[in-house]
Design goal:
Blueprint (H helix, E strand, L loop, with lengths): L1 E17 L5 E20 L5 E5 L10 H13 L5 E6 L10 H16 L6 H11 L3 H6 L3 E5 L3 E4 L7 E6 L6 H7 L11 H7 L5 H4 L8 H7 L2 H10 L5 E4 L6 E4 L3 H11 L5 E6 L2
Parallel strand pairs: 3-4
Antiparallel strand pairs: 1-2, 2-4, 2-5, 5-6, 7-9, 7-10, 8-9
Helix pairs in contact: 1-2, 1-3, 2-3, 5-8
């Protein structure tokens, strides 16, 4: 079975506080983009899980895909393992949900290959045990995500634009970024996501007023070059510029793809990963 695991970006991310179990309570707008990992998965008769990365990207032996499979084995009482080949195109530690998207697609494939045929709603319990964003990645559409990541509300609006992705060499572990988050430094209004959703079908220069991210300040402390990337993109007067998730990816959205292509040509050799994709 051949799969595409799409990257995501956060159009908005507001930290609302902490839950009693120590997690952060979030309010986010997320959407998929055309950048994706390509995965091929085959069922085995024994219990081994083999993962082969077909391009030159390091992936730990224990990762989101192996965790997802083991949790599926436990929940649905089967022992079969799987052979997985993955072309890893989504940068790691980039704030674009590559690992969570891979896990979600593997879960959906296992659901079919093992004739479990569980509805996605049922798979959410397993997804939350793999990682908070995996629930979103089961659906991978424009949506609002709340709580620890388990509350999913589809947004029935169109938001289709070209997007320039810029990721420096340094990545950021989500845990490190949240540990540096200081609520006293977060001046973003609590209702920013409500306002962002309200204006999503307006002009991008209106949308950008509410496309905020509570994690920008801690991310910039961890990877200061995010400042430089942001300033560079702002110098081209692009419609919307923001950091995705916990970083270190910065993106720019503009109605004019030729404008994005011009910027791409000027900065493509300056950072580890630069590319133009589409929101989907």
């Amino acid at each position: 079975m051949v799969l595409k695991a799409y990257a995501k970006i956060n159009l908005g991310l507001k930290v609302l506080g902490k839950t009693i179990d120590g997690y952060h309570n979030l309010d986010m707008v997320m959407l998929p983009i055309s950048l994706c990992d390509n995965i091929e998965i085959t069922k085995r008769e024994d219990d081994k899980i083999n993962i082969e990365v077909t391009n030159n990207v390091y992936l730990p032996l224990e990762n989101s895909m192996t965790k997802a499979i083991k949790l599926m084995q436990e929940k649905y009482n089967f022992k079969n393992g799987f052979d997985i080949k993955i072309e890893k195109n989504i940068p790691i530690q980039a704030g674009m949900g590559g690992g969570t998207s891979d896990a979600a697609e593997v879960m959906k494939a296992v659901n079919i290959l093992m004739d479990i045929n569980a509805p996605l709603k049922e798979l959410e319990d397993v997804a939350m045990k793999v990682g908070a964003d995996v629930v979103y990645s089961l659906y991978s559409t424009l949506c609002r995500i709340q709580g620890k990541g388990e509350i999913y509300t589809k947004i029935d609006k169109k938001f289709n634009y070209p997007i320039l992705i810029v990721k420096p060499k340094s990545g950021i572990k989500t845990k490190d970024c949240f540990e540096l988050y200081n609520k006293d430094e977060d001046l973003i209004q609590m209702d920013v996501i409500d306002n962002l959703i309200r204006v999503l079908n307006k002009d991008l220069k209106i949308v950008r007023k509410y496309a905020k991210n509570s994690l920008v300040k801690p991310a910039k402390k961890l990877v200061p070059i995010i400042n430089k990337i942001t300033r560079t993109l702002y110098s081209y007067d692009l419609d919307l510029i923001q950091m995705s998730g916990s970083g270190s990816t910065v993106y720019a959205i503009d109605k004019d793809i030729d404008k994005l292509k011009e910027v791409y040509e000027k900065i493509k050799d300056d950072y580890q990963f630069v590319g133009i994709y589409e929101t989907i």
